[in-house]
């Protein structure tokens, strides 16, 4: 590693003690000036902040312990001979075995803790700065924010080095490509049966009358349901709001034309999904979610262990495979997208932001100013400059509001923003359901997925599609995105469960208690060091420190399919 993780730890300790020293040094001034009630209130605020920061020292100790554990585990990595070279894949030297699952889990815990620590500290310091207006305190907080950000940047770069040591990044990419190829073969086998007359069908009607991201995720739902129940999915050749001639005007057929060959009327009772005598079933999405353990955020049991080893967000990778399968375009669609990308002069490295405005704001999500996006873009470029030369800070902007580009260029003149204004104008609600508008949406999703870093809102289906597709291009891109609102989710998913890693004693009225062996149904991450959820043991809903829980991957038994590739 280029830097010492222990020096980073010591630096964090130093900042903590600096915080205590300066805050304590201000207390005497409060005692000798101003109204007594005001003094008490301010003193209480300072003491509360000290207690909160003191609590975080325990988190830093946990980070240090995990770093030491990872160092030990690194020394135990052995060379194997599992992988072979293929011309269509990135070059990886024969013999790279990759880290153990325990190693990767420990590394991811460190990544999470470092980020949650910085979110917590930044949030608390801004709150302290706003509540205590004394000038020297404000100067102190600004200095601490600057130094704290530098320490966070150093720790993140240390973790980046650790993540990519000994060509493990190439191993992750190889694993993702190999396992992804197996899933694509399975889908192709399911969707192209040898004999349609002996095939059970799942008919996917696109009648949601919602935006493109919503409708594509509906087709993903259909494919996952078909995969889990060994039913070939078919899309009827009916008019679609984006294309009057239907789905196949834009996309290639998702499989063999079995519905046309069988010529039978599908049934609509969702409870017949497992009945072998029901040969054709229409997917009624809301009803089909009854006891559907296979729906996201579940992944197939037979790939779960291998997937966990190389990827930090297995459900997103799994869903991304279905998005990849669907993103096969007709020649006219492919040509329109390629021409649109060509005129943008696309190069990397590049960050991407998806700014959602127009009719979506205040109905499906809140409005976020461009400054909120650029905070994370600036942090990412500061990190990147520590790893490699950055000649130009490039940002791809996708938005349904063409006015955003002028605003962001005016506010951030040192960045090179690229954006297709024709796409932004076509995304206007009046033009949204034209074919040219759909081409623009597809272009945006593809380009956002190719960005090295993405800032968007997971409340947006387009943002989630880009993140899902991003996973199919990379080994592990789970940390290459920052949402400004929701955590990643799939519409209609089963509960997102996390296990408690460390007990939490509530300090505020809106916090809940967590004990060992508890599990939490997550409602969201507030991106300030806290998450919200429901303790499944006590039924209480409230806040807790986000680093105290970890994801619990849901596994579901699904068919293996008749393909020769092994996933173990």
Please describe what this structure looks like.
The chain is about 50% helix and about 10% strand. It has helices spanning about 5-25, 25-30, 35-75, 100-130, 135-165, 170-190, 210-230, 260, 285-290, 300-310, 315-325, 330-340, 370-385, 405-410, 420-425, 435-450, 460-475, and strands at about 200-205, 230-235, 280, 300, 350-355, 395-400, 415-420, 455, 480-485, 495-500, 520-525, 530-535, 540-545, 550, 555. By secondary structure, it is α/β, with parallel strands linked by helices. The longest helix has about 40 residues, at about 35-75. The chain is globular and about 80 Å long. Mean pLDDT is about 80; it is low at about 1-5, about 25-35 and about 75-95. It folds into four domains: about 5-170; about 190-295, no CATH class; about 305-485, Rossmann fold; about 495-555, SH3 Domains (SH3 type barrels), CATH 2.30.30.40. It contains 17 helices and 15 strands.
Topology:
Elements: H1 5-25, H2 27-31, H3 36-74, H4 101-131, H5 135-164, H6 168-191, E1 201-203, H7 212-229, E2 232-234, H8 258-262, E3 280-282, H9 285-288, E4 298-300, H10 301-310, H11 314-326, H12 331-342, E5 351-355, H13 370-387, E6 394-399, H14 404-411, E7 416-418, H15 421-426, H16 435-450, E8 453-456, H17 461-473, E9 481-483, E10 497-500, E11 519-525, E12 530-535, E13 541-545, E14 549-551, E15 554-556
Parallel strand pairs: 1-2, 1-3, 4-15, 5-6, 5-8, 6-7, 8-9
Antiparallel strand pairs: 10-11, 10-14, 11-12, 12-13
Helix pairs in contact: 1-3, 1-5, 3-4, 4-5, 4-10, 5-13, 6-10, 7-11, 7-17, 11-17, 12-16, 16-17
Keywords: Glycosyltransferase, Membrane, Transferase, Transmembrane, Transmembrane helix
Organism: Sinanodonta woodiana (Chinese pond mussel)
Transmembrane segments: 7-25
């Amino acid at each position: 590693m280029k830097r010492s993780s222990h020096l980073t730890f010591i630096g964090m300790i130093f900042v903590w003690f600096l915080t205590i020293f300066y805050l304590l040094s201000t207390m005497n001034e409060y005692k000798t000036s101003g109204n007594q009630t005001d003094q008490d209130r301010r003193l209480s605020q300072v003491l509360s902040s000290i207690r909160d920061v003191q609590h975080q020292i325990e988190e830093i100790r946990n980070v240090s312990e995990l770093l030491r554990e990872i160092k030990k585990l690194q020394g135990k990595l052995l060379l194997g001979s599992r992988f072979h070279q293929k011309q269509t894949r990135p070059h990886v030297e024969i013999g790279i075995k990759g880290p153990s699952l325990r190693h990767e889990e420990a590394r991811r815990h460190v990544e999470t803790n470092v980020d949650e620590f910085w979110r917590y500290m930044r949030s608390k310091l801004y709150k302290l700065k706003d509540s205590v207006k004394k000038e020297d305190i404000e100067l102190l907080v600004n200095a601490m924010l600057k130094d704290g950000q530098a320490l966070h940047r150093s720790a993140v770069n240390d973790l980046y080095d650790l993540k990519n040591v000994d060509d493990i990044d190439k191993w992750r990419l190889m694993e993702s490509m190999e396992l992804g190829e197996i899933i694509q073969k399975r889908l192709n086998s399911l969707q192209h049966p040898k004999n349609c007359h002996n095939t059970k069908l799942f008919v996917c009607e696109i009648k949601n009358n919602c935006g493109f991201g919503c409708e594509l995720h509906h087709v993903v739902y259909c494919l996952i349901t078909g995969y889990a129940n060994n039913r070939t999915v078919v899309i009827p050749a009916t008019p679609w709001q984006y294309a009057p001639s239907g789905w196949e005007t834009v996309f290639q057929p998702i499989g063999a034309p079995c519905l046309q060959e069988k010529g039978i009327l599908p049934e609509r009772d969702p409870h017949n999904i497992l009945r072998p005598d029901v040969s054709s079933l229409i997917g009624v999405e809301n009803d089909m979610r009854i006891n559907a353990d296979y729906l996201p955020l579940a992944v197939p049991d037979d790939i779960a262990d291998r997937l966990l080893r190389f990827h930090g967000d297995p459900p997103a990778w799994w869903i991304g495979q279905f998005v990849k399968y669907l993103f096969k375009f007709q020649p006219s669609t492919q040509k329109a997208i390629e021409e649109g990308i060509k005129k943008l002069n696309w190069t990397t490295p590049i960050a991407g932001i998806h700014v959602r405005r127009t009719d979506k704001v205040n109905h499906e999500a809140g409005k976020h100013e461009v400054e909120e996006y650029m905070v994370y873009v600036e942090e990412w470029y500061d990190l990147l400059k520590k790893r490699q030369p950055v000649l130009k800070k490039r940002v791809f902007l996708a938005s349904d509001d063409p006015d955003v580009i002028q605003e962001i260029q005016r506010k951030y003149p040192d960045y090179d923003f690229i954006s297709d204004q024709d796409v932004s104008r076509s995304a206007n609600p009046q033009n949204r359901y034209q074919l040219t508008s759909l081409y623009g949406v597809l272009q945006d999703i593809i380009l956002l997925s190719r960005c090295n870093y993405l800032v968007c809102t997971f409340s947006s289906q387009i943002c989630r599609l880009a993140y899902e597709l991003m996973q199919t291009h990379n080994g592990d891109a789970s940390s290459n995105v920052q949402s400004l609102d929701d955590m990643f989710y799939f519409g209609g998913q089963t509960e997102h469960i996390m296990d408690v890693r460390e007990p939490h004693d509530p300090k505020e009225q809106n916090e809940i208690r967590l004990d060992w062996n508890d599990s939490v149904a997550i409602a969201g991450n507030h991106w300030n060091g806290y998450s919200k959820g429901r303790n499944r043991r006590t039924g209480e809903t409230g806040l807790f420190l986000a680093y105290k829980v970890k994801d619990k991957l849901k596994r579901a038994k699904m068919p293996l399919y008749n393909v020769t590739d092994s996933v173990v």
